[in-house]
């Protein structure tokens, strides 16, 4: 097919067909969504270096300079950590400081956030799994950003 296009077999000079083919080939990659929570728990190590966006994460600020966010994905627990951006949206920072100070805050809907960043490290472990969970996937994000859903 490419040989026929190059030889001008599709149209006057073949360029419209070449451009159309390039758009078709690039379309899925360009329109592909960022990996989410399910992809992280299913294949964590393969996403290192990839940008992710995670909805419905329950977050809290343990006060150690990191933000901790968790989400149940089936019978697995996704736990994401990253540096908290002190220059992020004021309302989000105030909510985290006022209502989301420790792990007991994970039941508070006010602690729901959308989390985005680049996967720096990721691994699944069974050792830290809470009761009823098969494993915990621990992910560290670089350039972590948060916002309200």
Layout of strands and helices, then pairs:
Layout: H1 2-6, H2 15-31, H3 37-42, E1 51-60, E2 66-73, E3 76-83, H4 90-99, E4 112-125, E5 135-147
Parallel strand pairs: 3-5
Antiparallel strand pairs: 1-2, 1-4, 2-3, 4-5
Characterization of the model:
By secondary structure, the protein is α+β, with helices and mostly antiparallel strands. It has 4 helices and 5 strands, in the order αααβββαββ. The protein has a 5-stranded mixed beta barrel with strand order 1-2-3-5-4. The termini are far apart. Mean pLDDT is 77; it is low at 1-10 and 14-31.
Please name the defining characteristics of this protein.
149 residues, alpha+beta, globular, disordered N terminus
Oligomer: single chain
What is Rg? 21 Å
Helix content: 25-40%
Low-confidence stretches: 1-10, 14-31
Count of DSSP H/I helices:
4
The total count of strands amounts to: 5
Question: Would you tell me the structural class of the helices and strands?
Answer: alpha+beta
Shape: globular
Instruction: State the separation between the terminal residues, measured CA to CA.
Output: 46 Å
Largest sheet: 5 strands, mixed, barrel
- Kindly report the average pLDDT value: 77
Which strand order spans the largest sheet, edge to edge or round the barrel? 1-2-3-5-4
Q: What is the helix/strand order?
A: HHHEEEHEE
Strand content: 35-45%
């Amino acid at each position: 097919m490419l040989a026929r296009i190059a030889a001008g077999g599709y149209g006057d000079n073949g360029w419209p067909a070449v451009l159309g083919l390039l758009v078709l080939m690039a379309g899925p990659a360009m329109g592909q969504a960022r990996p989410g929570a399910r992809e992280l728990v299913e294949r964590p190590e393969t996403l290192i270096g990839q940008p992710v966006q995670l909805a419905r994460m329950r977050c809290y600020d343990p006060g150690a300079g990191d933000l901790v966010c968790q989400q149940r994905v089936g019978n697995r627990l996704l736990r994401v950590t990253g540096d908290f951006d002190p220059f992020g949206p004021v309302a989000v920072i105030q909510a985290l400081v006022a209502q989301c100070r420790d792990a007991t805050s994970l039941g508070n809907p006010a602690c729901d956030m959308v989390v985005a960043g680049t996967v720096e490290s990721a691994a699944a472990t069974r050792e830290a799994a809470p009761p009823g969970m098969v494993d915990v996937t621990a992910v560290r994000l670089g350039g972590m950003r948060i916002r309200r859903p």
